[in-house]
Specification:
This protein has helices spanning about 1-10, 10-30, 40-60, 70-95, 100-105, 110, 115-135, 150-160, 160-170, 175-190, 200-205, 210-220, 230-250, 250-260. By secondary structure, the protein is mainly alpha-helical.
Length: about 260
């Protein structure tokens, strides 16, 4: 009876069940031998946010007359950045870390590429509970804040071709992972996450791949937050990512599968 039920399950739900199982397995591997286990997900994000608030507030990096509520400003930036950065970093090594399982299982490499995306949603949800609790206590977010979860999902899908490229490239070049960590540091400090960008930076920073998505994220949390980026910049970027994805699957996919 149970076997018939599994066989009658639509293929989408079968893959979803397998994907969630792989996500759970990946967490088990990451926290193997750890006393606290998955609690580290909460501690890492909470400590990091607290540290940046302390530093930015302590040295007056963001406490200006125009932005007196610096804590909500930092919280919104880090709530956006931390899950995205973790997704990018994990995507880099997801294929190499599961090389043997991909060969044995016959599931194919494509399903494993979605593991960091699912984990990103999970990390975002965990991190948003204390952050949104504080912001609602401060009376900051409006009703549009309900859209931040779909928006973070849209952001992940737009950058998904880039994640595929990183994961496949890391199969060939082991130097990709440290390079990604370096560029994530550059990405963090080039975005106005814990500081207010100077006005004369706007003409340059609006071309940052994540700047538009960050601005809209803050706008959904705080409707009075401005969105400076012209609409055609993220439009061209999204179309470029779609073209990049098409070109990526022409030959690169076969090459990577041969090296796994």
């Amino acid at each position: 009876m149970e076997q018939k039920l599994i066989q009658s399950t639509p293929i989408f739900f079968k893959k979803l069940i397998i994907l969630l199982t792989l996500v759970r397995r990946d967490y088990a591997m990451q926290f193997a031998g750890s006393v606290l286990g998955g609690i580290w997900l909460v501690l890492q994000g909470s400590v990091l946010i607290g540290l940046y608030i302390f530093i930015a507030g302590g040295i007056g990096l963001i406490r200006t007359n125009s932005t007196p509520d610096y804590i909500p400003y930092i919280l919104s930036g880090l709530l956006f950045w931390i899950p995205i950065a973790e997704m990018i970093q994990r995507s880099t090594t997801i294929l190499t870390d599961n090389r043997s399982l991909i060969k044995r299982s016959g599931l194919g490499a494509d399903l494993f590429l979605w593991i960091p995306v699912i984990q990103m949603f999970f990390h975002f949800t965990i991190l948003s509970i204390p952050v949104m609790g504080y912001l609602f206590w401060m009376g900051k977010p409006g009703l549009t804040s309900l859209l931040i979860l779909p928006w973070i999902g849209i952001t992940a899908l737009v950058f998904f071709p880039f994640l595929i490229y990183l994961s496949r490239s890391n199969v060939l070049l082991k130097d990709i992972s440290p390079v990604v960590r370096l560029f994530l540091q550059l990405g963090f400090w080039s975005l106005p996450l814990v500081y207010i960008q100077p006005a004369h930076w706007l003409d340059i920073i609006q071309y940052h791949p994540l700047f538009f998505f960050l601005e809209v994220f803050r706008f959904l949390l705080f409707p009075d937050s401005p969105v400076h980026t012209p609409y055609y910049i993220p439009l061209f970027f999204t179309l470029g990512m779609g073209l990049f994805y098409k070109l990526l699957n022409l030959r690169f996919k076969e090459i990577i599968l041969d090296h796994l």
